[in-house]
Every structure is written in structure tokens, then in C-alpha cells.
Amino acid sequence: MVKPIVAFIIIFTGVAFSWATDVTPSSPVSLKQQMVVRYGGAKPLQWGEQVPGVRMRLDTSEKVIALTLDACGSVKGNGVDSRLMDFLTREKVPATLFINGRWIDANPQLFESLADNPLFEIANHGILHKPASVNGRSVYGINGTKNIGELFDEIEQNARKILKITGKQTRYYRSGTAFYDEVAVKISQELGHEVVGYSLLGDAGATWNAAAVTAALLRARPGDIALLHMNHPEAGTGAGIITAIPELKKRGFRFVKLSEFPLK
Predict the structure, then answer these.
(1) How many domains is the chain built from?
(2) CB burial class (10 A; 0-12, 13-18, 19+) of residue 53?
(3) What's the CA gap between 179 and 234, in Å, rounded?
(4) What is the largest CA-CA distance in the chain?
(5) Which distant-in-sequence residues (6+ apart) come within 8 Å of 158 by Cβ?
(6) What is the pTM of this model?
(7) What pLDDT is attached to residue 76?
(8) 3-class DSSP state for residue 55?
(9) Is 198 a domain residue?
């Protein structure tokens, strides 16, 4: 009776180890099947930006702000605000960059440069920038992942792309549009990704002008996670951030990466 138990422990441990580290080519299929079996009967009841499990703030009362910059990909979203990124680098302002797989493909050398910059940490923004659903919910006219298998691919394929290039596992995931159902959030967590929303809307999908972005950031409270974009140089986001940062520093705020504090 002992041998079967030992064999089971070895198999289970092997799965857990491959989950947490780099994996063999065959293991993603196995892990995907596990997620499909485990959550196949789950019926999501919620849909939005603040469903249970989405981390909205830094868990601290310190006067700190986390700038999170999305790079969403797509034909119209593959740019980069070089002036903004150069400013952050020059002023030594850290940020967490949520990078989509299509943006990486369009900007491979730039992505490697950003990943090598210690001011920035790379987070997962999905392989195709889809809302995170297990039943095909949509928002803003964008179709979400249609089932558990497609959700798995959306998260895991980009995670593995980033791992292959940088040698580092991503810790955080934000879906395209930042919409989720609660089952998708649980699956993301099981895949090793905390789901990160925001407490401060910084640029409304890079649609606000510079003055509106600055005004939004100057309403910051301690522990805020600000949602902004780095992939639209034509938008007002960069100029708005550049104007706001010196004033926020004068007010005693410090800028941090997500990994510097627990999330809530």
C-alpha cells in the first residue's frame, strides 16, 4: 500500500514544481486540462472591474503611489510614448508595466530594454488583450475569452513569452479592458498571477487630454494604484504624467512598483 501513495506524491509534486518554474513543452497541456476539469462546472455570477479577488490598492498608509502603465498592442496600440519613458528613467520614477503579447512582437528590442531597466517591473497584460471571462462575456465591444481553455491561453501564453525573453516569471495580471468574472480571477490566481485593477483612473484608456490626466493624478491618495497607458504617444497621457509627478513629489508622495507592497 505504501508504493502507490509514494508514486502519487511524486506525480503531484512534479506538477506543482513545473507550475511554479519553467516547464517542459508538454506540461502546459496538462495544466490547461487541470484548469478545465477543476472549473468546468463553475458558473460566474459577477462581471466587472472590481469582482472578488481583484487587487485595487497597495496595502499601506504610506504616502506612495504605484504607476501602472499598460501597453495593449493591436494595430493602433503598438506605439510607445518615448518622451514619457525617457522622463521616468531620467527622474528615476519606478513603474509596473503591463505588457500585451502583440506589443512585445511589435517592439522586441524595446521590450528587452524595458525589461532590463531596474526601474520597471514587467507584468502580464494577456496575449491578445481580451477581457477575462470563462463564458465569452464582452465589454466595450471587445469579446472576452470564450471558455476556460481560451482564458488559460490568454494568461499563460503571454506569461511564457515573457519568461522566455526575460528569464523572469510575471507575478501580476491585468486583462484587456480590466474586466473579469470571479471564476477567471480564481484561475489567474491558481496560475500564479495576482489580478491587479486600479483605484485611480489616470487616462481613461488614453482618451483624456494632458490637463485631465494631471488633474486625476493630483487627486491621488496614499496607496493608490494608477491605471495609465504607455503605448499612445499621440495621447495626453505622457504630458499629463510629466506635469503631475513633480507636484506629487512636492506633496510628499513617493512612487513605487507593485512588488514593493502587499496588495488589497
Answers:
(1) 1
(2) middle
(3) 25
(4) 71
(5) 99, 100, 101, 124, 125, 126, 127, 170
(6) 0.89
(7) 85
(8) strand
(9) yes
